[in-house]
Amino acid sequence: MKHYNLGFLGFGNVGRALARLLVAKSTELRERYEIEWSITGVATRGMGWRARREGFQASSLLGNSVDASSRPALSTGINEWLRGARPDVVFETTSLNHETGQPAIDYLTAVLKFGSHAITANKGAVVYGYDELSKLASAAGKSFFFESTVLDSAPVFSLFRETLPAVKLRAFSGIFNSTSNVIIETMEAGRSFDEGVKMAQELGITETDPAHDVDGWDATVKVCALAKVLMRLPLKPSDVRREGIRSLGTQKLQAARIDGKPYKLVARATLSDNGSSLNASVKPEQLASTDPLGNVRGTSLAVHFELDMMPGLTITSHRPSLHSTAYGLLADFINAASG
Amino acid sequence: MKHYNLGFLGFGNVGRALARLLVAKSTELRERYEIEWSITGVATRGMGWRARREGFQASSLLGNSVDASSRPALSTGINEWLRGARPDVVFETTSLNHETGQPAIDYLTAVLKFGSHAITANKGAVVYGYDELSKLASAAGKSFFFESTVLDSAPVFSLFRETLPAVKLRAFSGIFNSTSNVIIETMEAGRSFDEGVKMAQELGITETDPAHDVDGWDATVKVCALAKVLMRLPLKPSDVRREGIRSLGTQKLQAARIDGKPYKLVARATLSDNGSSLNASVKPEQLASTDPLGNVRGTSLAVHFELDMMPGLTITSHRPSLHSTAYGLLADFINAASG
């Protein structure tokens, strides 16, 4: 049996869902993986940098009563927090900056230098920090994992890392942004763009400002993360031809649906002939139902890979929930602990 | 760098494709995985038990000139063959017996007792021998892998073993037999069952006698293998409600296709409410295009999982080739060597 101190950098919807999942799976973690855990650090904008070596009550954290439960130490920044919480694993779920990946990269750097496993839900940290963070992790003998950044909890990065040795990835395509597809489907049913946004908000899959989703940034950053990790090619968001869904009108969408080739926001990356660069785009495309991504609907997500060893391999995640996203982080934790 | 002696038990289409793949990937195996290899044993009905400690020429083996190349020793049975070839890894690709899993289980038992990794393409060995062979492998510190037995080269067993810790599988469904689906699609185009069989034979996906495919045995044995390994439930082929595709007439198939719900041979297994048994079937079903398996066509294969952590996860392998099947065995080899 090994005990793990856990640190939460960010404790919003995903962090909270993960804490609930850890509680729900605690017996299985102990019996099957010999993992015991306590949360010794939590940091959020609201509560500051909080550390408590003897552990917080998960129930108090989830009930927002961190202070009453423990009077935890208030650190001045990440390094003091790490020294106070002594985490074996840090879950980083702070907000995304798609142009720099900061401050997540600085946080993860500090975490790995301290000697903890670093697990992030932050795509930007992968796009802008993968090389440096991987080197740090390797030098420290720790894991830098980020399974939940693309396609939610469905295995994508671990699929290639663990199950597909010696393959060459030639191209991939994907439906990576559920907000855009929910809006498109709402408009196909005759309603407006704004009603589509409202629908996505009610489903809890988009922010108050949906720009990040509908202008294609979310899908673009995911393309860059996949290119970087699976193809070892640096691709910046500005290298991706990006076109969002704002210009699609209700009539155009309805006509395409009736024609059997509805629009979806599709992400693509294809290796150049000499294998040294990528041709990448995120844009609305009409897909026939025979397309590998053709029957991805609603909040479902999918990625399609073209490999030297297999003509096509598609992974589809149907209607992932917040619970599923949290599972991506839990799986990273167990894999890091077992690794 | 580590050198691996490789033994081939069976050297038919799959074994040959694997040998070609090993040659094609030899530089990458050396440079990326520090794996060097030579084939020190081959056994087939035609050539008998052949061992050559200094290695066969892969090109000679592929050219059917094993004798000319090497005058290899002729052993009297598997144990003498193992002592002669001293394989680190044995690839077992002998014919399937779907009622007993023999002689594959006896071969794999001998291989693991000798102290080699055992890699098989044989579903029967998984259905009837999984517990015993896993125990032997574990005791010997070796791997018993069988990724290519279901869904060809697409990761299924390794997906659960390596990337999906702490999940509970509640149900799965799949399109596991491409021959049946090619026949159905040929008949939808107005042709006869026999013409469908001929088409499948021309595609190289079925034997002279297609009974094993069209009567649902192939899919049934795959359901049992998945149940045994992923759900730890013993399911015998006789426990599966099995109905093949022979009773489907051309008109019925055409009408279903026009109706937008074409028939496919679908395999299903669902956990009982108390979690102790399975309700399993293999039978023709009409699938709408919105079904997770709804757009699997031609020789493509797919499996759909329902998990406690994810509402649905579908893996689709598009038009796998013999090359892809061989890759399943290669991936097992690299994973065993890295493990």
| SSE arrangement of chain A, N to C | EHHEEHHEHEHEHEHEHHHHEHEEEEH
Helicity level of chain A, as a percent range? 40-55%
Identify the strand order in the major beta sheet of chain A.
Answer: 4-3-2-1-5-6-7
In total, how many beta strands of chain A?
Answer: 13
Number of helices of chain A: 14
Q: Report the largest inter-chain contact.
A: A-B, 45 and 44 residues
What is the CATH level 1 assignment of the largest domain in chain A?
Alpha Beta
Give the strand content of chain A: 15-25%
Return the CATH architecture of the largest domain in chain A. Answer: 3-Layer(aba) Sandwich
Which key features would you list for this structure?
2 domains; 6-stranded mixed sheet; 339 residues; 14 helices; alpha/beta; Rossmann fold; Dihydrodipicolinate Reductase, domain 2; homodimer; 7-stranded mixed sheet
Mind explaining what this structure looks like?
The structure is a homodimer of 339-residue chains. The model of chain A has no long low-confidence stretch (mean pLDDT 94). The longest helix of chain A has 18 residues, at 123-140. In chain A, α1 (13-24) crosses α14 and α9 crosses α13 (250-258). With 339 residues, chain A is α/β, with parallel strands linked by helices. The first copy, chain A, folds into two domains: 2-153 and 323-338, NAD(P)-binding Rossmann-like Domain (Rossmann fold, 3-Layer(aba) Sandwich); 162-319, Dihydrodipicolinate Reductase, domain 2, CATH 3.30.360. Chain A has helices at residues 13-24, 26-33, 58-62, 66-70, 78-85, 104-114, 123-140, 157-163, 178-188, 193-202, 211-214, 217-231, 250-258, 322-338; strands at residues 2-9, 35-44, 48-56, 73-75, 89-92, 117-120, 144-145, 169-175, 241-242, 263-271, 278-286, 301-307, 312-318. In chain A, the strands form two sheets. The first copy, chain A, has a seven-stranded mixed sheet, sandwiched between helices. β13 (312-318) of chain A pairs antiparallel with β13 of chain B, so a sheet runs across the interface.
